[in-house]
């Protein structure tokens, strides 16, 4: 039977991991989902340690929660933290059908797996004592699972090759230097003095604020295309409104 | 509780001769990666094609020279080289050799015509246009295809669930990538790749979950141990068996495109570059049926009364949905995709026979189907309107008058798919259905009747295309390109073998019969 400490740990961490796993399913933002996975993985690591597999537990923490999930977060942030899943249902009734089928599968699995009985207290004490935790693992990996271990390398090479094929943009020709850029501008005869700089306002770091043309309209040329694509460009109207009504600005400022 | 780990380190015994064919393919793929890193861009395409063809030929040589005399379990039971494994491996090598010949086709492009000049360039961007002008190409497709071939060779020879899972991934991952590298209609191609990747990972998760349950049931991932555990029937963990079997089967049936796990098939077949579609349709189906046979006949055979009806229902659904939906298709690649779904159902009927003749029938079927499929997608890649493939069926009207040879070959292949007597399709269907009648009882007899009716439905679809090609007026500027010598050889071999399997099937049927005994 399980000891009291183990039972307490299990019930507390187990419920937390279920909650964070549900968070993965229902989070609207990718960052929250990724954090949910990282948290679940970390708790799994603690479980492994609790069951007498410290090496596996630590690797789980380091590799999954630490490295993989953090890489995931980086990617999510590169793509844009603000991007969230579209919840438009393209196939009618799909959500209900999915729910029905998932519940059916869940009921089947719980019904079948719930029937098993486990006798005794399986643990790793004997193995941890005689060859040792890590040695036992090494013996399995380089013993009977050596073929699996070796062919997994093919998977890693494929992944690396795939990343190169799909994401590595090789430069075609020389990278133009400043002199070359200047020459091109004069050749074309437009933006001879460079593109307009973004507008500068005292209260902002102004890369997202377009410069205003003499007639007051913003010029898109002054703002990075990435910001435009993400729709993160500030509207100049905001600031002209502030100019018309300075009292509110002053009040807001004193409240800060 | 028995301890699962050995007390002292035991080295797995390796019979290198038995796994030499697989090792050669891995070696060729690794050299291919290095070639891509170091060879000058102008000569990469030729080096890669030569290397890939050489590797596959060498591997086939090793297979018939050494591996056939080194049957048995090796690597502590992780790989089981027996008759079915060798037959499947040899077939994969033959089919992939033909596929590589078709993949290498350049037409007027500087690189392989089917593949984008730069996978990382945004579709329609100036960078992509510049890469096309500069004559760049994605020569990485050849090492990727080789990796996939290696996975396909391990898949039907896997002796345990873990090796089978890793082999599944090794064969799938390159396919996901290859699907997204089409030169034309790249958005469609990338969408197909993403869809394939997501659904493929989903089905892999099912497979893995099922493997975990079966491991809990048998205390080992080995098929032999699993089979033994089923006969002793441990009562306390009995609840793990059926869900484990079902989930593992879901993972495998996804790969062959059985209904209801077929959703990816039409989109991926349509989006992928045509030579890759042929490769995928022929070789993946072959390897996956090898794996299903291995699992069903050596792992979970003793429990078959529990799951046989379920798989029979899936087979019936697959045949019906595949053939009925192929009637409504207007895109030639989607039509062939639904036809491949229907064929998966026909083959499943043979699998359920549970007899050595069923094994040989299935093996003959997947080989014959693979040859015809590779040739059919090779022809699809030739028929163009402008530079893009003429994939709409209406565009094929009148092709028989403009290009009698191309249309004639395609008509022959369609008749083969339909299973007209004296084609390999007929022999294959007979080889798969006869054992089902002989050993399967009423259930399989009903399935065979459904199969024959569905064959009639698909025959209607194919004949409609043939009528369109020969008896209607040509529209637009559709023409068939002149293939290079390599492609012509590949196509010719595939077509000749298809005809030969129809007219003189006896040698290959005999070979399949001799190779139909599994080693446990």
Characterise this structure.
The complex is a heterodimer of chains A (256) and B (520). Chain A has 256 residues and is mostly helical. Among the domains of chain A are: 1-81, Up-down Bundle (Four Helix Bundle (Hemerythrin (Met), subunit A)); 132-167; 198-255, no CATH class. Chain A is built from eleven helices and two strands; from the N terminus they run H-H-H-H-H-H-H-H-E-E-H-H-H. Chain B is mainly α and 520 residues long. Chain B is 71% helix and 3% strand. Chain B is built from 20 helices and five strands. Chain B is globular, with a radius of gyration of 22 Å. The chains are: A mainly alpha (256), B mainly alpha (520). Chains A and B meet through helix 4, helix 6 and helix 7 of A and helix 1, helix 4, helix 5 and helix 6 of B.
Write the layout of secondary structure elements.
The complex is a heterodimer of chains A (256) and B (520).
Chain A lengths: L3 H23 L3 H21 L3 H26 L14 H20 L11 H5 L3 H10 L3 H22 L10 H11 L22 E2 L5 E2 L5 H5 L7 H8 L1 H10 L1
Antiparallel strand pairs in A: 1-2
Chain B lengths: L15 H23 L2 H25 L6 E3 L4 E3 L1 H21 L22 H8 L7 H14 L6 H19 L6 H33 L4 H10 L8 H16 L7 H8 L2 H26 L4 H24 L4 H20 L4 H27 E3 L2 E2 L9 H4 L1 H15 L5 H16 L1 H31 L6 E3 L4 H19 L2 H9 L6
Antiparallel strand pairs in B: 1-2, 3-4, 3-5
């Amino acid at each position: 039977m399980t000891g009291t400490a183990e039972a307490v740990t299990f019930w507390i961490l187990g419920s937390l991991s279920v909650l964070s796993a549900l968070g993965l399913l229902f989070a609207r933002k990718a960052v929250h989902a990724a954090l949910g996975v990282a948290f679940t993985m970390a708790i799994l690591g603690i479980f492994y340690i609790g069951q007498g597999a410290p090496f596996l537990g630590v690797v789980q923490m380091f590799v999954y929660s630490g490295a993989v999930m953090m890489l995931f977060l980086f990617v999510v942030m590169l793509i844009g933290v603000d991007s969230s899943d579209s919840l438009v249902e393209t196939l009618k009734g799909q959500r209900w059908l999915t729910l029905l089928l998932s519940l059916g599968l869940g009921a089947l699995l719980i019904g079948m797996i719930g029937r098993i009985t486990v006798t005794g207290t399986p643990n790793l004490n004997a193995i941890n004592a005689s060859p040792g935790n890590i040695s036992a693992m090494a013996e399995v990996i380089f013993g009977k699972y050596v073929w699996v271990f070796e062919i997994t390398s093919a998977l890693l090479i494929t992944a690396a090759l795939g990343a190169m094929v799909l994401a590595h943009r090789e430069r075609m020709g020389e990278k133009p230097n400043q002199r070359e850029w200047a020459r091109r501008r004069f050749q074309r005869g437009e933006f001879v003095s460079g593109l307009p700089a973004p507008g500068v306002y005292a209260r902002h770091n102004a890369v997202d604020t377009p410069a205003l043309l003499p007639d007051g309209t913003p010029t898109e040329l002054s703002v990075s295309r990435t910001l435009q694509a993400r729709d993160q460009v500030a509207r100049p109207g905001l600031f002209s409104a502030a100019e018309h009504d300075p009292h509110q600005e002053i009040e807001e400022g004193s409240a800060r | 509780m028995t301890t699962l780990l050995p007390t002292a380190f035991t080295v797995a015994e390796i019979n290198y001769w038995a796994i030499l064919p697989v090792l050669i393919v891995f070696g060729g793929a690794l050299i291919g990666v290095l070639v891509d890193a170091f060879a000058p861009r102008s000569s990469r395409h030729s080096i890669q094609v030569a290397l890939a063809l050489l590797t596959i030929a060498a591997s086939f040589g090793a297979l018939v020279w050494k591996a056939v005399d080194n049957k048995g379990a090796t690597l502590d039971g992780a790989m089981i080289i027996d008759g079915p494994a060798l037959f499947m491996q040899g077939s994969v090598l033959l089919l992939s050799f033909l596929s590589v010949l078709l993949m290498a086709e350049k037409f007027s492009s500087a690189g392989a015509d089917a593949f984008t000049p730069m996978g990382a360039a945004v579709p329609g961007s100036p960078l992509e246009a510049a890469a096309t002008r500069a004559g760049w190409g994605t020569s990485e497709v050849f090492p990727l295809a080789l990796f996939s071939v290696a996975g396909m060779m391990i898949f039907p020879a896997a002796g345990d669930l873990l090796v089978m899972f890793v082999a599944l991934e090794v064969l799938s991952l390159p396919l996901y990538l290859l699907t997204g590298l089409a030169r034309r209609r790249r958005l469609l191609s990338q969408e197909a790749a993403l869809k394939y990747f997501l659904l493929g990972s989903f089905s892999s998760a099912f497979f893995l979950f099922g493997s975990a349950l079966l491991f809990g049931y048998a205390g080992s991932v080995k098929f032999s141990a699993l089979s033994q555990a089923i006969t002793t029937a441990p009562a306390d963990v009995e609840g793990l068996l059926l869900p484990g079997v079902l989930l593992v089967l879901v993972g495998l049936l996804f790969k062959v495109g059985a209904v209801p796990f077929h959703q990816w098939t039409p989109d991926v077949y349509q989006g992928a570059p045509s030579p890759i579609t042929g490769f995928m349709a022929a070789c993946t189906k072959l390897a996956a049926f090898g794996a299903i046979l291995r699992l069903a006949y050596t792992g979970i055979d003793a429990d078959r009364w529990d799951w046989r009806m379920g798989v029979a229902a899936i087979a019936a659904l697959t045949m019906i949905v595949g053939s009925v939906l192929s009637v409504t298709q207007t895109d030639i690649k989607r039509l062939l995709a639904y036809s491949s779904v229907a064929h998966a159902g026909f083959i499943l009927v043979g699998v359920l026979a549970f007899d050595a003749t069923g094994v040989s029938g299935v093996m003959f079927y997947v080989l014959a189907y693979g040859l015809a499929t590779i040739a059919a997608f090779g022809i699809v890649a030739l028929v163009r309107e402008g530079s893009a493939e003429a994939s709409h069926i209406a565009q094929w009207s009148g092709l028989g008058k403009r290009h009698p040879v191309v249309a004639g070959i395609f008509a022959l292949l369609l008749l083969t798919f339909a299973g007209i007597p004296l084609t390999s399709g007929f022999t294959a269907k007979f080889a798969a259905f006869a054992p089902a009648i002989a050993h399967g009882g009423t259930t399989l007899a009903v399935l065979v009747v459904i199969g024959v009716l569905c064959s009639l439905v698909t025959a209607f679809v194919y004949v409609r295309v043939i009528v369109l090609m020969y008896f209607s007026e040509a529209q637009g500027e559709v023409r068939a390109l002149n293939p290079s010598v390599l492609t012509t050889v590949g196509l010719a071999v595939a077509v000749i073998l298809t005809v030969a399997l129809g007219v003189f099937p006896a040698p290959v049927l005999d070979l399949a019969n001799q190779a139909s005994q599994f080693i446990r």
